[in-house]
Design brief:
This protein is mostly helical and 429 residues long. The chain is built from 15 helices and 2 strands. Helices cover 68% and strands 1% of the residues.
């Protein structure tokens, strides 16, 4: 009897972790970092991307671009809470390789004390929400200055649910690409290739802006663009380093290689612009920065500093020539170079992750992979994303056109979307 009492006292005094070693434990440090990263990624869209894009269009359309970024933020946020989060990160049962289920629709079962890894699931929900916001906002650059506002809203909502959510699940939600061993730390496939090919398809479906390419369509406010670019550079630390989902060595290395990639992208783009046009431009430097950031994104959790340097230099070089080809040779009016920078950069970065993860200080390939096998898996991820996003973007644009019409009239485009669609002007001088 005494032995039983002694055992009871010992058991009651033992820490809970002895009996629940596998139970998730909240980390205040990880939570604080993820709260910060969430704010940084939202900062990338509002005001970062809004200002970056807003300065690149003509004066008569600046407010329309700002409004599109704001509206997408609102629409995606509500759709994410109601259904999209569950479809991306919920358990889809026997179909989980392709799409999550509806068990977490309306965020059912997610409370203040619900844990996801070492952070509250509420923080994970809103962190992933910021990725879902910026991706369709990037697509805006492909059809800037010519799409109806109502059509943009419908298309963006449908695109989130039909295009973005499945790919996010494949790559990050325990879907088939993740199980295959795809390395995409922060969104080379989910964000950049996805948005890039969608923007290219949108530019082709809507057609060029009136006067393109004969009429110069210069950025109306490069000061605004550079301000937005600086915000993107800072916010990208939350985008990439935050994708570690913890405050540790992985986040630290991701932040370091992200900065190296951005800096190398600036230098490479500026060098080739200097050679070709005799003068480096501020717009070129800012675009090279975005190319470097977008390209390092999928590899940021896997490569070392020297790998990042090579990736950043390659990004500035390849994306510079891609932009020249799309605009000057193919004559496609991807208004703000989304495909050339994000699409091409996303492909380059995703493939580069398969090379440099196992070289120059990288963390290594997925389990059981050689470089050749890893690059093969990366290529499968690239092709799957291009096909899914490209084909379904075309379908959704055609559907939106049938329901609402896609494009404003020639007269409205000439007058400018700010006045025609929003009854406002960006400047009253």
């Amino acid at each position: 009897m005494r032995l039983h009492r002694l055992l009871a006292v010992v058991l009651s005094a033992a820490p809970l972790s002895v009996f629940a070693a596998d139970a998730p434990a909240l980390s205040p440090a990880d939570t604080a970092w993820m709260l910060t990263s969430t704010a940084l990624v939202l900062f990338m869209t509002l005001p970062g991307l809004a200002l970056f894009y807003g300065g690149l269009v003509r004066t008569k359309n600046v407010l329309s671009v700002l409004m599109q970024c704001f509206a997408i933020t609102a629409v995606v946020s509500i759709a994410w809470v109601l259904l999209a989060y569950s479809l991306a990160f919920g358990d889809g049962g026997s179909h989980n390789a392709w799409l999550g289920g509806a068990a977490k629709a309306f965020l059912a079962g997610i409370k203040a004390d619900t844990i996801k890894g070492t952070i509250p699931e509420t923080v994970f929900v809103i962190y992933q929400m910021t990725f879902a916001i910026i991706t369709p906002a990037l697509v805006v650059g492909g059809f800037a200055e010519r799409m109806k506002f109502s059509s943009m809203l419908l298309f963006s909502l449908l695109w989130l649910l039909v295009v973005y959510v499945p790919i996010a699940h494949w790559v990050w939600g325990d879907g088939w690409l993740q199980k295959m061993g795809l390395l995409d730390f922060a969104g080379g496939t989910v964000v950049h290739i996805n948005a890039g090919i969608a923007a290219l398809v949108a530019a082709l479906v809507l057609g060029a802006r009136r006067g393109f390419p004969q009429t110069p369509m210069l950025p109306h406010n490069l000061t605004m663009t550079v301000s937005g670019a600086g915000m993107l550079w800072v916010g990208w630390f939350g985008f990439n380093a935050g994708s570690a989902l913890s405050a540790g060595g992985s986040a630290g290395m991701a932040m370091l290689v992200t900065h190296i990639g951005a800096a190398a992208g600036v230098l490479a783009w500026s060098f080739f612009e200097w050679i070709r046009f005799q003068k480096p431009s501020m717009l070129g430097a800012a675009t090279g920065m975005v190319a470097g950031l977008g390209t390092i994104t999928p590899a940021s959790g896997y490569v070392g500093p020297m790998g990042a340097l090579i990736i950043g230099l390659a990004a500035g070089t390849v994306c510079f020539f891609a932009t020249q080809f799309i605009k000057r040779v193919a004559r496609i009016d991807d208004s703000l170079d989304v495909f050339s920078v994000h699409g091409v950069g996303g492909v380059l970065g995703t493939l580069s992750a398969g090379i440099f993860a196992g070289a120059l200080g990288g963390v290594g390939y997925a389990e059981g992979m050689s470089m050749g096998k890893q690059v093969g898996v990366q290529l499968i991820g690239v092709v799957a994303t291009l096909l899914w996003s490209g084909v379904l973007t075309w379908v959704l644009l055609k559907l939106t056109d049938a329901l609402l019409g896609l494009r404003v009239t020639t007269e409205q485009e000439t007058e400018g979307l700010d006045t025609v669609l929003h009854n406002e002007t960006g400047y009253n001088l």
